[in-house]
Write a structure and sequence with these properties.
The complex is a heterodimer of chains A (362) and B (254). In chain A, the strands form 2 sheets. Chain A has a two-stranded antiparallel sheet. A two-stranded antiparallel sheet of chain A has the order 2-3. In chain A, a hairpin with a 2-residue loop joins strand 2 and strand 3. Chain A is globular, with a radius of gyration of 21 Å. Chain A starts with 9 loop residues before the first helix and ends in a 22-residue tail after the last helix. Chain A has 362 residues and is an all-alpha fold. Chain A has one domain. With 254 residues, chain B is of the alpha/beta class. Chain B folds into 2 domains: 164 residues, 3-Layer(aba) Sandwich (Rossmann fold), CATH 3.40.50; 77 residues, no CATH class. In chain B, the strands form 2 sheets. In chain B, strands 6-7-8-3-9-10 form a 6-stranded mixed beta sheet, with helices on both faces. In chain B, helix 3 packs parallel to helix 6 and helix 5 packs across helix 6. Classes of the chains: A mainly alpha (362), B alpha/beta (254).
């Protein structure tokens, strides 16, 4: 068990709370950087490709976590932001924009779309907001299919490899490094934001709008910021996603994708940075695990077409029922079990029932 | 006589056919503890919500100093120096006590988004300054032990104190306390009375309070206003109001 003796305020503010954290995260960073040379020659490209996908999904997870996990606004339209980022990148690359500029443009264009979608969020909450954002998702999908002069309609768009300051990102390893670098940037920016007044305002809005207001938090302003940043981050991920797939078309961004994106944060653990990363790993690794398991299953089950969505749905239900804090919550429990061994109690993480809230104005 | 800090002039609010507050006037003077009492449903909390601009008044006006509060957005009220607590505790439950108190500092946070995203040295210094103020409040209310606990795991009595602490972090000149002793045991109520006295005398903050516990009211209040069915019945020192025939009738019936 580690006790941290605090003698200065900076100990609560700095990124790594103690030497152990610095060591382990440092080790993780080294391992991630060295991964391309550590992996076995034959399977290297396959694993790097999967890790590249994980980085992209982790960026989306962080964007969605900002909005849903930290600010408490549900969005069923994030596939649309992903699409806007992807199409912005594809169209601008075709016009000859250099990558740093086009990805910045994807960031801003999607951010503006986020502000527009944030407007109804100022009026509606909960399930109604989910419906409003879902409707937005349908609209964007439809526009992408119909605006053929710009998006090439249902035939989709092809992308060339990224040209990053003269280096062609044409191997799996290079794309992995690019995605990893952007993930690190987004993560750092978000951690910084969450230890600042704006981040605390997001959490305040999630937990109690009325008292957030009474503390001087401008609800409309901060909800709009949350929507804009969340969308913009998802837009950046969309640009990477487009390059990863090298081909995009409207049906890649339907409502099922939005739900899959929500699964990242719900299964990973809502309300934590770790959750977004764990969730991304899960969403990428699970289909692989299912297809590997098919060899062991009886043919009648393995051959069923809807196997993967069924397993996903089942896992989502089980997570919500038995581990609402997701993989990260489970990880915390396991870690506490070992650090406190043998004094861990089952009730340690049980939350008391919230006190009755009558007269809530919300 | 001290200057008038908050004045309600003939305020009314109507929800459909129900007149929740009807033509109530009162003045809170600088440096006093002013208490509003009354049976359930008399409109006490509604007056608080009118002051914090959660509802707009349908008649009359509320002035803070020489400023009309009418038409301000709720979040602007905190910046003017009015902080409040809630009857049914509205803390940010999935955050630590420290985090909650830091949110109380929001009215004093004015950095740009970019400065926050890059967490510049200036931002770090600002965080230190907020933290210093928060620690003062933690010292004042003896919350050191709970600094890093999640609010969701705290007992009711402590939550009540955390909410008071959060309001103090706003550095208000006027503090609105909505039933500070509800749900507290005798000892905790006693502490609360001491703190309200200290808030008035040591911190020099004017307090407007809604309260049912007449012992607490008599102990800390300078003046009391009794409401019934949204109308003012009596105003004066706690003793005067307690012995006012209309008040006795409202509480005990005839």
């Amino acid at each position: 068990m580690r006790f941290i003796f605090k003698t200065e305020y900076d100990q609560d503010i700095r990124l790594f709370k103690h030497g152990g954290a610095k060591f382990w995260y440092g080790l993780l960073a080294l391992a991630l950087l060295a991964a391309p040379s550590l992996l076995d020659e034959g399977t290297r490209d396959y694993y790097l490709s999967q890790m590249g996908f994980i980085c992209v999904y982790a960026i989306i997870g962080l964007g969605l976590m900002l909005l849903t996990g930290f600010t408490g606004q549900v969005s069923l339209g994030h596939a649309a932001f992903l699409a806007i980022g992807a199409y912005a990148e594809a169209i601008l690359q075709a016009r000859g924009w250099p990558f740093p500029l086009s990805i910045a443009a994807a960031f801003f264009v999607t951010g503006i779309a986020g502000i527009v979608i944030g407007l109804p969020a100022l009026r509606v909450k909960g399930i109604y907001l989910a419906i409003a954002t879902q409707a937005f998702g349908f609209i964007v999908e439809e526009i992408l299919a119909r605006w053929e002069s710009l998006t090439n309609g249902n035939s989709g768009l092809h992308l060339k490899p990224v040209d990053f300051f003269g280096i062609a990102i044409d191997t799996e390893a290079r794309f992995y490094y690019l995605a990893l670098g952007l993930l690190a940037l987004v993560l750092l920016g978000m951690v910084n934001l969450m230890r600042s007044p704006t981040g605390r305002a997001f959490v305040a809005i999630r937990d109690s709008e009325i008292s957030a207001q009474s503390m001087g938090i401008h609800l409309a302003k901060y909800k709009t910021i949350a929507f804009a940043l969340s969308a913009a981050i998802t837009g950046v991920a969309g640009a990477l996603y487009a390059h990863k797939l090298q081909f995009i078309s409207p049906e890649q961004f339907n409502v099922l994708v939005s739900i899959q994106l929500l699964m990242i944060i719900f299964i990973g653990g809502i309300g934590s940075f770790h959750g977004a990363i764990f969730g991304a790993i899960f969403v990428i690794a699970m289909p692989e695990a299912i297809s590997a398991a098919k060899d062991w299953l009886p043919a009648a089950i393995a051959g069923q077409p809807g196997l993967e969505p069924t397993v996903f749905g089942l896992i989502l239900i089980l997570v919500i029922l038995f581990e609402p804090t997701g993989i990260y919550g489970r990880w915390l429990k396991i870690r506490t079990y070992f650090t406190l061994f043998p004094f861990y109690r089952r009730a340690m993480f049980k939350r008391q029932k919230a006190y009755m809230k009558s007269e809530r104005l919300r | 006589m001290a200057a008038i800090m908050l004045s309600a002039e003939h305020i009314s609010i109507r929800f459909g056919g129900l007149v929740a507050v009807n033509d109530v006037s009162f003045e809170v003077r600088e440096g006093e503890v002013y208490t509003i009492i009354g049976p359930n449903g008399a409109g006490k909390t509604t007056i608080f919500n009118l002051i914090s601009q959660i509802y707009p008044v349908t008649g009359g006006r509320i002035r803070f100093g020489d400023r009309d509060l009418g038409g301000l957005s709720p979040h602007r009220v905190a910046a003017l120096g009015i902080a409040r607590t809630f009857q049914n505790i509205e803390l940010f439950e999935h955050a630590t006590v420290l985090h909650n108190l830091l949110i109380g500092r929001h009215a004093h946070a004015n950095a740009g988004l970019l400065q926050e995203i890059f967490f510049t040295p200036a931002q770090r210094r600002m965080e230190f300054a907020h933290r210093e103020k928060v620690e003062e409040v933690i010292d004042f209310l003896d919350l050191q032990h709970y600094r890093d606990s999640l609010v969701a795991g705290l007992p009711y009595g402590v939550r009540k104190v955390v909410e008071l602490a959060r309001a103090l972090c706003v550095e208000p000149t006027l503090l609105l306390l909505d039933e500070p002793s509800s749900g507290l045991n005798l000892e905790e109520t006693d502490d609360m009375a001491f703190w309200i006295d200290d808030i008035k005398n040591d911190l020099g903050i004017t307090v407007l309070m809604v309260e049912h516990d007449m012992n607490l009211v008599a102990r800390v209040s300078d003046r009391v206003l009794a409401l019934n069915y949204g109308q003012a019945m009596a105003e004066g020192t706690p003793q005067e109001v307690q012995s006012h025939p209309a008040v006795i009738e409202a509480y005990l019936g005839t």
